[in-house]
Design brief:
Layout (H helix, E strand, L loop, with lengths): L3 H9 L2 H4 L8 E2 L10 H13 L10 H21 L7 E4 L2 H16 L5 E5 L8 H10 L2 E5 L9 H7 L4 E7 L11 H11 L3 E5 L11 H4 L3 E5 L10 E5 L1 H4 L12 E4 L4 E3 L13 H17 L1 H20 L4 E3 L10 E6 L4 H10 L2 E2 L1 E3 L4 H7 L4 E5 L6 H18 L5
Parallel strand pairs: 1-13, 3-4, 3-5, 5-6, 6-7
Antiparallel strand pairs: 2-8, 7-8, 9-10, 11-12, 12-15, 14-15
The chain binds pyridoxal-5'-phosphate (PLP).
Length: 414
């Protein structure tokens, strides 16, 4: 595991952790929303604009070719990082949300018909719910859910019961952004293949930043994730798709750079990836995501996962002992680094605002998972989520100041 010295060095790489706004060190526990960025990734944006900026795939001058080279190298890097077979299976988009919408529009709306079924879980983020509701509205397909038990795990019998030959799409999160559950994706994909003709989509938004992923081994048809949750800039995300599926489905957006030939009355399209990257692309973002992958690889995903697990276990143990708090996160030791909880007698926004006065940033609200919160019997929760730079000392400080929240609100004292 990382030593204290290594974590100290890692922390020194992140400018935001060292600026001490209001003279106080910031404890950043909102990594599930977005991570802070290390200096080398911030500098990478400048490097791109200073010497590599052009419009790729167009033109014969140096910068047009340079930007094509760095953009396509970034694609290659993502391919290796997620274990795809070909770099053409990596589509650069804005974020995981856009990636899921692409599949919903290009596959869902065209391939599904009345009576077909889409299966998702109650753990899903709105990005993996709303696009499927829209597909159902347009096609007459039916949206079904698998639910979790009291330990936030999906009993496998839920899939056995709900995957049938009517199921055409199964779309499941790799990790819950609220309760930390890691569904057994490999087992679910295998069962889906054996019992239906459905495609399988993995929402990797909270999985790819924390766990080594191999799309070929998992055998998923599509996977979506965002760069900004893994130390990269905002505005860049990825849709992975199996080549044969990508080239079968219709483009989501059309226009420049995704065409083969354009006639006055019709157009032929290129294959993936260009087929899905209409218009001028986010080269800066793709290059930045590649830099973030280098950053993660520098420390090693296994080591990052081990350390984040250690922090999560530590925080879970501490919060579970407080009788004025209800913890929602799964008690399984194999969980994503998110701890969601509620004070018995305080609204999450009050808790988060008071903690903010001590320099502690947590998330409060529904975390874009309203159906899950309703299922849990609360409309909202507090969430502390961890990244590579967090420490047990920060967790101690955070837990200590939960008492101050009670004191400020007049619901308890030290
Ligand atoms: C599980 C999950 N899926 C999808 C998303 C959407 O990610 P983005 O907002 O980057 O598109 C999030 C964001 O928090 C998430 O936690």
């Amino acid at each position: 595991m990382f030593t204290k010295e290594e974590i100290k060095n890692i922390r020194s790489e992140f400018p935001y952790l060292n600026i001490k706004p209001n003279g106080k060190e910031i404890i950043y526990f909102d990594n599930g929303a977005t991570t802070q960025k290390p200096r080398e990734i911030i500098d990478n944006i400048v490097k791109y604009y200073e010497g590599e900026n052009g419009n790729p795939h167009r033109g014969a001058h140096y910068l047009a070719m340079k930007s094509t080279e760095v953009y396509e190298n970034a694609r290659e890097k993502v391919k290796d990082f997620i274990g795809a077979e070909k770099s053409s299976e990596v589509i650069f988009l804005r974020n995981a949300t856009e990636a899921l919408n692409l599949v919903a529009y290009s596959y869902g709306r065209n391939e599904l018909k009345e009576g077909d079924e889409i299966l998702i879980s109650i753990l899903e983020h709105h990005s993996n719910i709303v696009p499927w509701q829209e597909v159902c509205k347009k096609t007459g397909a039916v949206l079904k859910y698998v639910y979790v038990d009291e330990n936030m795990q999906i009993p496998f019998s839920e899939f056995e019961e709900k995957i049938t030959e009517k199921t055409k799409i199964v779309s499941i999160t790799g990790a819950s952004n609220v309760v930390g559950t890691y569904p057994d994706i490999e087992k679910i994909v295998k069962y889906t293949r054996e019992n239906s003709n459905a495609i399988f989509i993995l929402d990797g938004a909270q999985y790819v930043p924390h766990k080594k992923v191999n799309v070929k081994e998992l055998d998923v048809d599509f996977m979506a994730f965002s760069g900004h949750k893994m130390y990269s800039a905002m505005g860049i995300g990825v849709l992975y798709g199996k080549e044969k599926l990508l080239n079968k489905i219709e483009p989501f957006l059309s226009g420049g750079d995704m065409i083969e030939y354009v006639y006055e009355d019709h157009t032929t399209f290129l294959d993936a990836p260009q087929r899905f990257e209409a218009g001028t692309v986010n080269v800066e973002g793709a290059v930045n995501l590649a830099a973030a992958i280098d950053y993660i690889n520098k420390y090693g995903m296994e080591k990052i996962e081990e350390y984040e697990k250690y922090l999560t276990d530590y925080c879970y143990e501490k919060l579970s002992k407080l009788d004025y708090i209800k913890v929602y996160t799964t008690n399984s030791k194999d969980r994503a680094p998110v701890i969601s909880f509620n004070f018995n007698e305080a609204h999450p926004h009050d808790v988060a605002s008071i903690l903010d006065t001590f320099g502690i940033a947590i998330r409060s609200g529904h975390h874009c998972a309203q159906p899950l919160h309703r299922f849990l019997g609360s409309n909202f929760s507090c969430r502390a989520s961890f990244g590579i730079y967090n420490t047990v000392e920060e967790i101690d400080y955070f837990v200590e100041h939960l008492e101050d929240v009670r004191e400020v609100l007049g619901i308890g004292s030290k």
